[in-house]
Write a structure and sequence with these properties.
Layout (H helix, E strand, L loop, with lengths): L5 H10 L4 E5 L2 E4 H17 L7 E5 L4 H12 L3 E4 L6 H11 L3 E4 L4 H7 L3 H6 L1 E4 L36 E7 L7 E6 H15 L6 E4 L7 H12 L2 E4 L8 H11 L3 E4 L1 H9 L13 E4 L6 H10 L4 E6 L9 E4 L15 E2 L3 E6 L12 E7 L5 E2 L3 H7 E3 L9 E11 L5 E6 L3 E4 L2 E4 H9 L4 E10 L6 E9 L7 H8 L11 E4 L13 H9 L4 E2 L2
Parallel strand pairs: 1-10, 3-4, 3-5, 5-6, 9-10, 11-12, 12-13, 25-26
Antiparallel strand pairs: 1-2, 7-8, 8-18, 13-14, 14-15, 16-17, 17-20, 19-20, 20-21, 22-23, 24-25, 26-27
Helix pairs in contact: 1-2, 2-3, 4-5, 7-8, 10-11
Length: 536
């Protein structure tokens, strides 16, 4: 197995330098050119003062240049930190403060966001900006220190690397219950273990043409990129503007002649809802994979009935256990829309444990709390030992086969078939459109808005492709008119769009239980009724 993720690119560049590595909108980049450009970028970063273990943020949407950026960051012995370019400046600022990065690699379209960030003197003084484009990016409050045109001054030979396989490869910031994003540290070895297992299980080869649908700040993108490079295949970046156009997505699969599709289920459900898949469509497509949330069985049946030539695999696993920890390939099209699809069995090197509240094993067929151990476990949360200790526990069995287990917060059970079935969440964390969201972060932001006396946030089943809908209930300050429209707009200044509530209730007081706590069960029931107002 490789030592560092960038070695996948170096291997392919040595063996097949002219082979296509990345494709976007008709533009292609070969493995040889990807290797050379990434080496040059790494040398530039090192010359600029980047040292082993430094964090480098990537603030751009998917592009060929972004892929060069990721590989170059690794080759510079640095840690890659993808940041959602659609996030509000205050949220990005929290990530920058947490990871204390020295560089931002930015792409077209983020100039307003950078200007907003660089209003703060602490960022202007501490962070340099590199532009992933031929022209230097400019703003009112920032200037870029280099562009891709400057790479020609640096050698294309690989720089020396001091990192080893158990060093951090990237930090993925997810929603945090305290109101601040939390950074999940993932190592080179954890990704390589999953990639190697997936290459063997799915049989990927250099003839494959793999999709890259999720945004770069989503952990599924890591498999898209390095699962492709490990096989020497082609990575076809799905333009972000196609994600809300089901007909265009279907046409992309056809014209790109994809052999593998990987996304969150909401995308597949959306395409099924608009009936864009024809009988025996996508003749080259061999594999359909999904991860991140439950795929509704009616939509799965829709896909399987139309693509009898493809295999369909459900992958399961939180960010903290590296991409996925279990798998289940559906053997045949389910007969019933109500049929439950299991999350299956553990991937090689992983272990799934069902434990009771005392961390003892549950009886066969009994629900339990799902814990994961094995090679995919993150070292923990970036510079947050308390949160790490709370989520990563000593193995209650002691000693071998593992030292730690991760508390997923999910409930599951083993069926009569010996397969694991997901039952739901145990806490306030939800999945909506594949995004993991802490309701506590949304609630904290809501309660901080001027004019809101108190607020609470719950989630309800949508019955649609979203999976879960966020519902906000609030009590306004006396004499102040605060509407759902204005609150949604204010929340949009601090939270990304996917975290914004879509249903609202204005109340005179929040319901309380006998202990004086907010009665969230009653709030959910009210949200599911006619009392909630929908906003978009």
């Amino acid at each position: 197995m490789i030592e560092l993720l960038q070695e996948y690119v170096a291997r392919q560049a040595e063996r097949r330098p002219e082979a296509v590595a990345v494709v976007l909108n008709g533009e292609r980049l070969s493995y040889g050119r990807l290797e050379s450009a990434a080496n040059q970028l790494a040398r530039l970063l090192q010359a600029a003062g980047c040292r082993r273990g430094d964090r480098v943020c990537l603030l751009t949407s998917k592009s060929i240049e972004a892929i060069v950026g990721i590989v170059g960051i690794y080759k510079a012995d640095c840690i890659y930190v993808p940041v959602d370019p659609s996030s509000p400046a205050p949220r990005v600022a929290k990530i920058l403060e947490s990871c204390e990065n020295r560089w931002i690699l930015a792409g077209d379209g983020v100039e307003p966001l950078l200007d907003a960030l660089f209003e703060a003197d602490r960022f202007r003084a501490a962070i340099s900006v590199g532009w992933l484009g031929r022209e230097r990016g400019k703003g009112a409050r920032f200037h870029s220190d280099f562009s891709l045109a400057d790479l020609s001054a640096y050698s294309t030979a690989p720089p020396d690397c001091a990192n080893r396989r158990h060093d951090a490869a990237h930090i993925l910031f997810t929603s945090g219950s305290t109101g601040a994003p939390k950074g999940v540290v993932i190592t080179h070895s954890s990704v390589a273990h999953f990639v190697e297992w997936a290459r063997r299980y799915f049989g990927t080869t250099s003839a494959d043409r793999m999709s890259a649908h999720p945004p770069l700040h989503f952990d599924l993108s890591v498999y898209d990129i390095f699962g492709t490079f490990a096989a020497g295949a082609q990575l076809h970046l799905v333009p972000p503007d196609l994600s809300i156009l089901p007909n265009k997505l279907a046409e992309f699969v056809r014209t790109s002649e994809l052999t593998q599709w990987f996304s969150v289920p909401s995308v597949l459900n959306y395409m099924a809802k608009f009936d864009v898949v024809r009988a025996n469509d996508f003749p080259t497509l061999r594999r359909v994979l999904w991860c991140g949330e439950v795929f509704p069985t009616p939509a799965l049946r829709y896909w399987m009935a139309r693509l009898p030539h493809a295999t369909f695999t459900n992958l399961y696993g939180p960010t903290e256990t590296t991409i996925a920890s279990s798998y289940y390939t559906v053997p045949r099209c389910p007969d019933d829309d109500r049929a439950a699809i299991p999350i299956g069995i553990a991937c090689e090197g992983e272990e799934l444990l069902l434990l009771d509240e005392h961390l003892g094993p549950t009886a066969l067929g009994e629900p339990g709390d799902l814990y994961i151990g094995g090679v995919g476990l993150s070292p923990g949360y970036w510079r947050d030992p308390e949160l790490t200790r709370a989520a990563f526990l000593p193995d209650p069995r002691g000693g071998e086969p593992m030292e730690r287990i991760y508390r997923t917060g999910d409930r599951a059970m083993v069926g009569d078939d010996g397969l694991l079935y997901f039952l739901g969440r145990t806490d306030s964390q939800i999945k909506s459109r594949g995004y993991r969201i802490e309701l506590g972060e949304v609630e904290t932001a809501l309660s901080a808005i001027e004019g809101v006396r108190e607020g609470a946030v719950v989630a309800i089943q949508s019955g649609g492709f979203e999976g879960m809908l966020i519902c906000a209930a609030y009590v306004g300050e006396p004499g102040r008119e605060v509407t759902p429209v204005t609150l949604r707009r204010e929340l949009g200044r601090t939270l990304p769009a996917y975290m914004l509530p879509s249903r609202w209730m204005v109340l005179g007081s929040l319901p309380r239980n006998a202990n004086g706590k907010i009665d969230r069960r009653r709030l959910k029931e009210a949200c599911e009724g006619d009392g909630a107002e929908a906003t978009r």
